[in-house]
Design a protein that fits this description.
- The protein has 354 residues and is α/β, with parallel strands linked by helices.
- The protein has two domains: 182 residues, Rossmann fold (3-Layer(aba) Sandwich), CATH 3.40.50; 86 residues, Rossmann fold.
- 32% of the residues lie in helices and 16% in strands.
- The strands form three sheets. It has a six-stranded mixed β-sheet with strand order 4-5-13-10-11-12, sandwiched between helices. Strands 8-7-6-9 form a four-stranded parallel β-sheet, sandwiched between helices. The chain has a three-stranded antiparallel β-sheet with strand order 2-1-3, with no helix packed on it.
- Helix 1 runs parallel beside helix 2, helix 5 packs across helix 6 and helix 6 packs across helix 7.
- The longest helix has 17 residues.
- The termini are far apart.
- Bound molecules: zinc ion.
- Zinc ion (ZN) binds next to loops.
């Protein structure tokens, strides 16, 4: 294998795994894998950031699968006492572009020819799109009830879409038993290196000043954990002096961190946070706790209304993204974060309804 591709190590038992196109996506003990090379914080942070490859000195050397991910706008939105980081401006419309760029760069460097992923939304679209750019054959496992317009955009990349009866977990189980390199956004460690660039970009945007808090929707926690790792690297490198608090927005009765699931909640609202078994739940909870943040739960009806109000002032987004904005307002109303707090809400994905 090319020597520049980092090996991986189990976060639970420290077992080592050689970088290889047949490498596992998790340890035999069940633990998640991490890249063996430590996360290097960028030595300089300059705005504007053109795209995430501005941080390539912090990435493993080798292949680059580029479509222009990153470099997204940060805009002040006084109506919500927050700034919005518009991840909707990424090439496939969500923050998942960041992780997909690094994940497919590894796959390409390993010489992978066939990969598999399970998703019904933004992650499937991003992995399929970057696989197309890399010339890698992609098999995307989706629940049979998944959104038709999203599936059409996945199929348009030339990916093989495999519809699985029985919901999101059944699609994940079917995918895990298939062959090919598993490009899982939840399990692959380099995906979180990609999402860490969002933290670096925010500190560059703000000329070195960390915000007080970020509020964002959490399913598997691929953005929250990447942000935490990115900020932590800057803290350890002496670039910032404190971690922003990380608040995880959840839907009442249907979130990934707030069981039990209420089957009566409308399945079209915030599907991105409805993960029954998050891959890295303990790491995500630890990141929230270490940052001084919390889990914040809001009602589905508030998300529907909040999304309508956001569209009426010009911000188009999916309902999962609207959940984060509604949670920022809930933190204010519940007295947990004042209106004077310096808060960023990543707008994680754009509307699928167009
Ligand atoms: Zn292990």
């Amino acid at each position: 294998m090319p020597s520049e591709v980092p090996d991986t190590r189990c976060a639970s038992c420290d077992r080592l795994f050689e970088a290889h196109r047949d490498e596992p996506h998790r340890c035999t003990c069940g633990g998640p894998l991490e890249l063996r090379s430590p996360l290097r914080s960028p030595s300089t942070l300059e705005a504007p950031v053109s795209n995430l490859w501005a941080f390539s000195a912090s990435f493993p050397p080798g292949q680059r699968i580029e479509l222009g991910a990153g470099g997204t706008p940060l805009v002040d939105v006084p109506e919500y006492d927050a700034s919005f980081k518009l991840e909707t401006c990424n090439p496939t419309g969500s923050f998942k572009d960041r992780g997909a760029a690094l994940t497919l760069s590894r796959a390409s460097a390993l010489g992978v020819e066939h990969l598999r992923e399970d998703s019904s939304g933004n992650a499937g679209r991003a992995i399929a799109t970057y696989a197309a750019r890399a010339g890698i054959d992609a098999h995307i496992y989706v629940p049979s009830h998944a959104d038709a317009s999203t599936l059409a955009t996945i199929e348009a990349t030339g990916a093989n879409v495999i519809a699985v009866d029985g919901g999101r977990s059944a699609a994940a189980t079917a995918c895990q038993h298939a062959s090919g390199w598993y490009a899982s956004h939840a399990w692959r460690p380099e995906f979180y290196l990609g999402t860490a660039t969002c933290a670096w970009e925010l500190i560059a945007d703000r000329h070195g000043c960390p915000p007080d808090a970020l509020v964002l929707p959490v399913g598997h926690g691929t953005l929250l954990l990447g942000l935490y790792r990115g900020f932590k690297a800057l803290l350890e490198g002496g670039t910032i002096e404190r971690l922003p608090q990380l608040y995880a927005a959840q839907l009442a009765g249907a979130g990934s961190l707030t069981p039990p699931t209420d089957a009566s909640v409308d399945p079209s609202i915030a599907p991105g946070v409805r993960i029954e078994r998050p891959a890295r739940q303990s790491q995500v909870r630890q990141a929230i706790d270490t940052s001084g943040g919390e889990v914040i739960t809001v009602d589905p009806s508030d998300v529907t209304e909040g999304r309508r109000q956001l569209a009426a002032i010009g911000f188009d987004m999916c309902s999962t993204a609207a959940l984060g904005v509604v949670a920022r307002r809930a933190l204010l109303e519940r007295g947990k974060l004042p209106d004077t707090a310096d808060v960023i809400v990543p707008i994680t994905g754009r509307s699928r309804d167009r």
